[in-house]
Amino acid sequence: MSTAQGPAEADSTVAAIRLEALHKSFGELEVLRGIDFRVDAGEVVCVIGPSGSGKSTLLRCVNLLEQPTSGRVLIEGIDITDPECDADAVRTRIGMVFQHFNLFPHLDVLGNLTIAQRRVLKRSKQNAEEVARRVLERVGLLDKIDEYPIRLSGGQQQRVAIARALSMDPDMMLFDEATSALDPELVGEVLDVMRGLARDGMTMMVVTHEMGFARRVADRIVFMDEGVVVEEGRPEVVLDTPVEARTRAFLSAVADR
Question: Which of 124, 129, 132, 152 gets the highest tally of CB atoms within 10 A of its CB?
Fold first, then answer.
């Protein structure tokens, strides 16, 4: 029987995230067609590729926001696709930031950061607020703690969303096109926070169209197309000397925009 009582034994061979023969279909549409790869603890992996390649679906399968059709998802050695696994307990280790901010409009910033801490982690009000203040300072928004989302810029709202995820003390963070809904002048402040997390050693899986960010921050880049991993490797290899024609065509199209 699978268990979610604690992290897998300390073992350098146990990946933070491991995907094995992952398939996902929506009706007759096969979106993921046998994905195999791993993200090690402390590693930053950026997933790039054209629209419709399956990137966001892949990310959503990692924490079971989408149930894979077949294959396995292992988080720190625990198979969360096993029906006997307490997947919700394991998912508390995973923070996720979406393209749209998904903040609660009726709660101020402090409320947005403390509600899940208190309901899911059962933290006291005082403890939850202490954590909220600490992570808001980390993303540079402690002065906005009493503001409501409507009074924040898009970049500030996304930084609050990152802080909310961090307030749950995750072992890893997933980012699904976290800057694509932002005006261009607001992208930088969010990417700066993500760079800081990478410097601090946070395990990160990032779906992004920001090639400059991927080049500077990623330990590894994964290029996807038509539901498969076409190519992966160090940023300087995948971005500058890609082996596959599909990778070269995509990067050429991005460069021409």
Answer: 132
How many helices, marked H, and strands, marked E, lie in the chain?
A: 9, 10
Of 70, 127, 123, the residue nearest 92 (C-alpha): 123
Task: Judge contact between 227 and 30, C-beta under 8 A.
Answer: yes
The pair phi, psi for residue 144, each rounded to 5°, is: -105, 15
CA angle (159, 161, 167) in 5-degree steps:
100
Structure confidence at residue 31 as a pLDDT band (50, 70, 90) = very high
Q: Judge contact between 159 and 111, C-beta under 8 A.
A: no
Q: What is the pLDDT of residues 227-237, one digit of tens each?
A: 999 999 999 99
Q: Are 254 and 211 in contact (CB under 8 A)?
A: yes
Cα–Cα distance, 25 to 66 (Å, whole number) = 10
CA geometry: angle at 91 spanning 87 and 93, to 5°? 135
Query: CA neighbours within 13 Å on the CB side: how many for 209?
Result: 18
Q: pTM for the whole thing?
A: 0.89
